[in-house]
TrEMBL record:
Database matches in InterPro entries: AB_hydrolase_1, AB_hydrolase_fold, Sec-Metab_Biosynth_Hydrolase
Source organism per UniProt: Amycolatopsis japonica
Domain AB hydrolase-1: 3-209
Pfam family, one: Abhydrolase_6
MF annotations from Gene Ontology: catalytic activity
Protein name: AB hydrolase-1 domain-containing protein
Length: 218
C-alpha cells in the first residue's frame, strides 16, 4: 500500500522519517511530500504540488496539524483511498468557517501566538514534551515554518466522501483534544482513535502511528 505523508506548519517532511521507515519495513511505499514553495499558492495549488511529487495510485493520505486544511484537496488530487488526520484540524464543512474563525475553540489558549521555530524551548514545551532526549533532538532538527495565509483563511468546502481515520493525542498542548474528538464525530462521522501522546506522535510514538495506519491497531 502507498502512504503519502503531509507535514504540518512547524515541521519539514523529516518529521515523518520514523513513521516512513517503519512503513517501509512492513512492505509499504511511502512519500513525505514537501509543501514549501517559493511563493504562496491557493489550496488547489498545494494539492497539485503534492500530486507532482507522487507517481503512484490511490494512496492513503496522512496529514498532521494545520495541513488538515489541505487534506481534502490533496486527497482528491491523488484519488486517495483513505484519509488519516493526525492531530490535524478538521475543517467546518457544514458551516464554512475557516481555521482563523475557529482558532479560539480549536487551539489551546497558551499556544496561540507562539512560533516554536523561533524558540526551541517553546517547541519542546508545546510540540515535543513527550519525547525522550534523542527523539527531542531529532524533532528540533525537523523544525521549519510553513504557514501560508491560506491555511488560516480558507473556508471549508464539502466534506470528503473518502473514509477517514482521526488520531487524537490526549496530551496535545496545541490543538485541543476535546475539540478534535467532537469534530471527528460531528464533521466526519467517525469515533477518534486516542493515543497517549503530545502534538507530534509521529515523532514520539511512531510505532503506534504505524500500527494504526496499517490496521494492526484500530
Amino acid at each position: 500500500m502507498d502512504f503519502v505523508l503531509v507535514h504540518g506548519t512547524t515541521q519539514s517532511p523529516a518529521g515523518w522519517d520514523r513513521v516512513a521507515k517503519l512503513l517501509a519495513a512492513a512492505g509499504h511505499r511511502t512519500i513525505a511530500v514537501d509543501l514549501l514553495t517559493p511563493r504562496e499558492l491557493p489550496v488547489e495549488g498545494y494539492a497539485q504540488h503534492a500530486r507532482d511529487q507522487y507517481d503512484g495510485e490511490r494512496p492513503v493520505v496522512v496529514a498532521h496539524s494545520g495541513a488538515g486544511v489541505l487534506l481534502p484537496a490533496i486527497a482528491e488530487a491523488l484519488d486517495a483511498r483513505a484519509l488519516v488526520w493526525v492531530a490535524a484540524y478538521i475543517p467546518d464543512f457544514a458551516g464554512g468557517r475557516s481555521l482563523r474563525d475557529e482558532a479560539r475553540s480549536v487551539l489551546e489558549p497558551d499556544w496561540i501566538g507562539v512560533d516554536p521555530t523561533a524558540d526551541p524551548a517553546k517547541a519542546s514545551e508545546f510540540l515535543f514534551h513527550d519525547c525522550d532526549p534523542e527523539t527531542e533532538r531529532l524533532a528540533l532538527d525537523s523544525l521549519r515554518l510553513f504557514d501560508p495565509a491560506v491555511l488560516a483563511a480558507h473556508p471549508a468546502g464539502a466534506a470528503p466522501e473518502i473514509p477517514s481515520t482521526v488520531i487524537v493525542p490526549t496530551r496535545d498542548r496545541t490543538l485541543r483534544p476535546d475539540w478534535l474528538r467532537r469534530a471527528a464525530r460531528e464533521r466526519l462521522g467517525v469515533t477518534a482513535i486516542e493515543i497517549d501522546a503530545g502534538h507530534c506522535p509521529q515523532m514520539s510514538r511512531p510505532a503506534e502511528i504505524c500500527g494504526i495506519l496499517t490496521g494492526s491497531r484500530r
